[in-house]
Amino acid sequence: MASSSSPDTMDKDPPGGGLSIAVERNPPESRLLQLGVKSWPKWGCPTGRFPVKFDARETCYLLKGKVRAHIKGSSDCVEFGAGDLVVFPKGLSCTWDVVAAVDKYYKFDSS
Asked: N or C end of the chain: which has fewer CB within 10 A?
């Protein structure tokens, strides 16, 4: 995914101790098929605000909803929603502010 990063964002240190959330907006259907997204488990949640710690790297594809993720130890907020493919690195702690109920496919890396 390094090829999709823009040069102006690569020079900055990510917030939260070097961990950052990667959002791929509206990936093509071919990418979703390549990843096997529709074979992943599904999960959903209502609106609300709650802390999340990722003990493993998670990749998810949002079918519906909208989230503002506030990375612990940073003033940065990452927004993502329906149609976005999102990767959370192992060890990341953040607070999810779910502004529209979420329905997503997800998978955790086994390593």
From this structure: C
